[in-house]
Amino acid sequence: MEFLDLFIVALMPVLKILLVSAVGLFLATERINLLGADARPYLNNLVFYLFSPSIIFSNLAETITLDSLTNLWFMPVNILLTFIIGSALAWILVKITRAPQHLRSLIIGSCAAGNLGNFPLIIIPAVCDDDNSPFGDSSVCSTDGESYVALSMAIGAVYIWSYVYAIMRLSANKATKEIDSNESTIQDSASGEIPYSEICPEALLPSRGSPTSQEDTDQAEVPSTKSEGKAKVSLLEKANLHLKKIFGYIDFKKIFAPSTIAAIIGFIVGIISPIRKVLVGDDAPLRAIYNSVSLISDATIPCMTLIIGANLLKGLKTSGVGPLIILGIIAIRYIILPSLGIVIVKAANHFGLVGSDSLYQFTLMLQYSLPPAMNVGTISQLLKTGESECSVIMLWTYAVASLFLTLWSTIFMWIVA
Fold it and tell me: Partner of 339 at 20 to 30 A CA spacing, among 147, 214, 252, 415?
């Protein structure tokens, strides 16, 4: 197909997202106020507790089988790579821009977690239904696309509330400690008292005759004569301590969010054939239950997209994020990550880690080019750090998403087709 034809195919679903988001933005204005500050939390709760779990369960139960799951094993790895690479690039951005401590968790979350929910849910089915689609028969494409999107949403939800939440919480706690330390210093200065560490800095240093607790541990476990072995053990212990520290910041209650529970149930129904035959299908005895859940799931895409538009309104009224930080996040999410995504997916295809299905490869590449996940804002609110700045970052990243998503979708289709 010609590049221009692919561009038009890629443009249509992005325009749908843009138009529905604009409606959400309009409904959130003070004059209309249908999705104002009071209404948005209720709609958010409906999406979080009802609509999103419904669409994940219904799509997984219908499309995922044991055979298809074995063929899609690379997708969880691919999504994890997007999170790890994004957070590593965010760390570099923080160092370059010298971002304030209270913004670092937000920058890391925005670069690490992509919107694996409503964007693929709109883009992939729309591309399949287009007459000029490069992915063959529309019915087969739509069925396969639903399974890819459902698995993407389920895995993404687990990673966001485990990996992203943990590193954002770790960074937010550092910001809190820094603020508390500054406040205590100010209070000491105001009261005229000088901290003891400034009078006698040697008090903070270990005495010559007594090693630190870390040195105690090393000396107790390794003889002093074996310096090389001691160094190795020390490095291993440090790595172990860092891992324990990160795992300590994982909130397992939040990992098992409604979407995660729905994904687990959906996998069980889809993989176990007897349960699947009871619930899914025209002849299933309990098909009314599945059909009801599927009916509820139809509201997910419009509601999620309306919320995105409504949440962007706050970004028009606030500031506080430097242009260099915003440009850095845009460069990571829309230039560096998609470019690396092409290399990773093509390399995986070369080594036989992914099949020859062009739609599957397109989905894997698309996961690298999405705007920040809206759950990053939810996490910022929970951690009470960077709440107002989050809306500014979301505004600009979603404003330019229409252009970059269209361009990258076109390039991805041109590559895999």
Answer: 147
